[in-house]
Amino acid sequence: MADKHAEARLLMGAAAAGLLHAGFSLYWAFGGRWLLPTVGQWAVTVAREAPVTAGLLLVAVAAVKCTVVVVPLVTSRRSLPRPGAWRAFAWLAAIVLTGYGALNSIAAWLVLGGVLRPEGGFDRQAMLGHAYLWDPLFLVWGLLLGAGLLIGSNDRRRRARASA
After folding, report:
1. Are 100 and 136 in contact (CB under 8 A)?
2. Contact 142/98 with Cβ under 8 angstroms?
3. Region 152-164: what's the mean pLDDT?
4. How far apart are CA 148 and CA 151, in angstroms?
């Protein structure tokens, strides 16, 4: 039972990180601009020059993020058709989020620290956003999701052995 509570807490933490990401995507989709420069000047330019296209794209991005939030929560609480496929989707999401967040955070830290020097310079505000906000949040989301899935998998295996 303790594992089930740990799994739920980890998956809820992952959901909070994912919903924060999705929330900003929706906020920007509907015209908000706070923190948008921390994504990159390109995002500010696209939002200004093609607001409808940017908005539709950001709604789609938010929908994908929300799907990644909801699937692990639902599969941990009830049986869905093809549960193995849904858990594989959640595991893939955890791996991608963790890898993407870690690699991009490290790259941004290296650029800010002067270890990497991009040709043509870099957007300092965006690099700060990627080093200290958006990419670490992807990393936290992926790590919490992966830990919750791991505990849930171990708990399911233990229950299967006990009932056999």
Report:
1. no
2. yes
3. 65
4. 5
Q: Rounded distance, CA 114 to CA 131, Å?
A: 13
Q: Which residues contact 21 (CB under 8 A, 6 or more apart)?
A: 65, 134, 137, 138, 141
Task: Report the alpha-carbon distance of residue 86 to residue 163 in Å, rounded.
Answer: 23
Q: What is the largest CA-CA distance in the chain?
A: 63
Of 154, 144, 146, the closest CA to residue 2 belongs to: 154
Give the three-class secondary structure for 40: coil
Q: Hey, is 83 helix, strand or coil? A: helix
Do 7 and 152 contact (CB within 8 A), yes or no?
Answer: yes
- Rounded CA gap, 109 and 44, in Å? 22
Residue 117: left if φ>0, alpha if ψ -120 to 50, beta else—which one?
Answer: beta
118-154 pLDDT, tens digit each: 999 999 999 999 999 999 999 999 999 999 999 987 6
